[in-house]
Each structure stands twice: as structure tokens, then as C-alpha cells.
Write a structure and sequence with these properties.
Layout: E1 5-14, E2 17-18, H1 20-29, E3 35-36, E4 49-51, H2 64-69, H3 72-88, E5 100-105, H4 111-121, H5 139-143, H6 147-156, E6 162-165, H7 171-184, E7 190-197, H8 202-210, E8 237-238, E9 240-248, H9 249-254, E10 261-270, H10 283-296, E11 305-307, H11 314-328, E12 337-338, H12 341-344, H13 351-365, E13 367-368, E14 391-392, E15 397-404, E16 408-415
Helix pairs in contact: 3-6, 7-13, 10-11
């Protein structure tokens, strides 16, 4: 008999709010948290807007030693993990440590600390040969992405499978999907899973500037992220994290845990085509959706809500619209779809997990978040993208999708548990 996997706790740090409650309040209000970049001087760049969280390590209860040792993205993950465990009510000390694991996703890992340390060692780039006498004693922690899930394992006392998933902007979905699979196959009973990224640094901003993937709408930062709108011109870079407690269903039920949703199915595909290019027919994303539905044993007509990737680039929004039509047929026209990136920006590898959190909360509260800034729909994006205002809607089954550089396409099905 296949073991079922349920989500019993969540922790979120996203632009516009601290914690899951403030995150959900922002989404359902239809307000946006995208503003001008304040973390550094962005004046030389083409795109100068971002979704910043206002993260305060002292307020979050991190010690000075933890702050010095951990990259900003790792700090986000640890804080969210603590919140998720508290939310779940699980007593990690009572668990068999070898039956608890960690699966963490990130696209750019410790980019913040790596750039900072390079600037110190090179004297702000003046010296081609860096001076190792200025090397941070924690440099290995920044160079090795595997340190990030290790920190979570130490935080919760997990001695089971510990994994780092890094496949671009689908990392947040794929890390949770990997965790769910470990529970299904019996390798773990409890997984701490999710994703984190803090890419608002000059080097990352410069990289997206170079390929013109990010928006130039600097004069209207709160309206800069415009998924599916005919005036859109790229995504808004953001930071954030979401971490979950996943448990085997019978174990969770036996301890009387609250259950946000069941992880019904997850699938990922690669188009083997282009690092950033997408085919117009949406075939690869459609295949990931079909595979996720098959694993969940859910008919396409049962989908009540789709959380779109909705990055706000023209090729992605059109590719995604085609994928929904290809995989769901006529049902695609009847399902409410929205992009929360319109409100919190695109936090690269983290956003997939943040969107899973949005789906879990939509199931819990019976509300579909809107797509903000959608005033002039692209005629080629002719589905119900829930413009501007949240919608009360019973969500029993939700689909969330992601699309990442490298040609990755991922989909996950979440459903309510009676």
C-alpha cells in the first residue's frame, strides 16, 4: 500500500510580511510588495526593483554566531524551519532521528555571502589576485551548497536523508517532491522540506540585466510585476523562503496533527532544448502536469485552482497558457489561475515552495489569490487569470507549476484531506 504524505506545518518569509499569516493577508488583499532595491545601490542597473523581505536576524531570534556563520539564505531557511515545526506541533525530540530528513532547494545558494567575500578579498574588485589573508573562516559554508540543508538538519536533529536540490526556478517544487517521495517509499517518516533564495545582490541583478529577463519598470515598482498583462516586460527579482513539515499520513493522524493538504503527485521534465528558450506549444510543462495528475490519481476536471509560474516574461506566460490548454483541455477555461509573483516577485529557487504555501493556504481558507496588475490581458493568455481581486472559491485540489532555466518544468498536485 502506498504511503500518503501530508503537509502539517509551514513557515514563510516573503516580501510584504513576516510569517504565514502576514504572507496570506498580503496575497488575499491583492496588494504588492515590490519596491525599489534598498539592499545596495542599484542605480547602475537596468532593473532597479525587487521584492525585499525586511528580514531582521535579531528580531528572528538568530544569535550573532549564527548570523556570522550562515549565509542570508540559510538564515531564512532556519527561521522558516523553526516556524514550521512550531506550527505543526510536532515534537522532534521524540522522533527517531534516523527517520527524519531534510530536502532543501535553492537556485543560487550563498550568492550573497560569496559576493561579499569576493569584494573584501579583492578590495572591491581592484585586485585581480585576491588576498587570502582576508578569507572568512566560514568560506567553506558559502562555497558548499550542501551546508545549507545540513544547517536545517542540525536545527531539527534530523539524521535521515539530507539533500540539496538545485535546478533553477523549479527547485522549490522539486525539493518538496523529493521529500514526499522519500516518505512514500518508506525512507523517512518526517521530512523538513522547502526552499530558500536571497538573490538580491549586484552580481545576480547584473546577470538578469544582461539577458533582459527582469523588468525595466523602475518608476512604478509596485506595478512592475505584470504576469499575463499585455504591457509586461520581465519579472521582478525577489528573496524569500518557505519550509514545510511533511509527514506520513497515518503518523500525522495518530498524533492529531492539523493537516493543510496532501501532496498528491509531483513530476518534473526537461525540454532538452535551450537554457532559457521555451517552445510555444507548452509540451514539456503539459507532460509534467499530466504525470503529476497521474501520480495523484486525479482527473484533470478535478482541479479547482492553478497557481501559475506566471513570471511576467512574454514567452513564459504564453508557453504556460498553452501548457494548461494542452494538459487540461476545455477544463483549462473553467479553472481559476493566478500568479502570486505579481505581488511578491520571483525569488528564483524559493518561489516554488512559497507557491506551495499559497496553495496550502488556499485549500485551508477557500480563497484564490489574485493576479495583481492585470489590467490589459494579453489576448494570447485568454484563461481565467483572476485579475486584481481575490476570489472566494472552494479549493479541494490545487495544481502548482514551475519553469526554470535549463529547460526544467515541474508540477505538483495538492489536495484537501477530509
Amino acid at each position: 500500500m502506498t504511503r500518503r504524505v501530508v503537509l502539517t506545518g509551514l513557515g514563510v518569509r516573503a516580501p510584504g510580511g513576516r510569517g504565514a499569516k502576514e504572507f496570506w493577508n498580503l496575497l488575499t488583499s491583492g496588494q504588492t510588495a515590490t519596491r525599489g532595491i534598498s539592499l545596495f545601490d542599484a542605480s547602475p542597473f537596468r532593473s532597479r526593483v525587487a521584492g525585499e523581505t525586511g528580514f531582521d536576524s535579531e528580531l528572528e531570534g538568530l544569535t550573532p554566531r549564527e548570523v556570522r556563520r550562515m549565509d542570508r539564505a540559510t538564515q531564512f531557511a532556519v527561521v522558516c524551519a523553526r516556524e514550521a515545526i512550531a506550527d505543526s506541533g510536532i515534537e522532534t525530540e521524540a522522533l527517531e532521528p534516523h527517520r527524519m530528513g531534510v530536502s532543501l532547494g535553492s537556485a543560487v545558494a550563498a550568492a550573497t555571502s560569496l559576493e561579499r567575500e569576493y569584494l573584501v578579498m579583492s578590495d572591491a574588485g581592484k585586485n585581480w589576485t585576491v588576498d587570502p589573508t582576508y578569507l572568512s573562516p566560514h568560506m567553506f559554508d558559502y562555497l558548499s551548497p550542501g551546508v545549507m540543508p545540513a544547517e536545517l538538519a542540525w536545527t531539527v536533529g534530523a539524521e535521515g536523508p539530507v539533500t540539496m536540490v538545485s535546478d533553477g526556478c523549479t527547485s522549490g517544487i522539486d525539493a518538496v517532491g523529493h521529500a514526499a517521495q522519500l516518505i512514500r517509499e518508506g525512507s523517512a517518516d518526517v521530512m523538513i522540506a522547502g526552499a530558500t533564495d536571497t538573490p538580491i545582490t549586484p552580481i545576480v541583478v547584473a546577470c538578469f540585466d544582461a539577458i533582459k529577463a527582469t523588468t525595466p519598470f523602475n518608476d512604478e515598482p509596485e506595478h512592475a510585476s505584470r504576469p499575463f498583462d499585455n504591457t509586461r516586460s520581465g519579472f521582478v527579482l525577489a528573496e524569500g523562503a518557505a519550509i514545510f513539515v511533511l509527514e506520513e499520513y497515518e503518523v500525522a493522524r495518530a498524533r492529531g496533527a492539523q493537516i493543510y493538504a496532501e501532496i498528491g503527485g509531483c513530476a518534473t521534465r526537461c525540454n532538452a532544448y535551450h537554457m532559457t528558450g521555451l517552445k510555444k506549444d507548452g509540451r514539456e510543462m503539459a507532460e509534467a502536469i499530466r504525470a503529476a495528475l497521474d501520480e495523484a490519481r486525479v482527473d484533470r476536471t478535478a482541479i479547482d485552482y492553478i497557481n501559475a509560474h506566471g513570471s511576467g516574461t512574454r514567452q513564459n506566460d504564453r508557453h504556460e497558457t498553452a501548457a494548461f490548454k494542452r494538459s487540461l483541455g476545455e477544463t483549462a477555461y473553467d479553472v481559476p489561475i493566478s500568479s502570486i509573483k505579481s505581488m511578491v516577485g520571483h525569488s528564483l529557487g524559493a518561489i516554488g515552495s512559497i507557491e506551495i504555501a499559497a496553495c496550502a493556504l488556499a485549500i485551508k481558507y477557500g480563497v484564490v489569490p489574485p493576479t495583481a496588475n492585470l489590467h490589459q490581458p494579453d489576448p494570447e493568455c485568454d484563461l481565467d487569470y483572476v485579475p486584481l481581486t481575490a476570489r472566494e472559491w472552494q479549493v479541494n485540489t490545487a495544481l502548482t507549476v514551475g519553469s526554470g532555466f535549463g529547460g526544467f518544468q515541474s508540477a505538483m498536485v495538492l489536495r484537501s484531506v477530509a
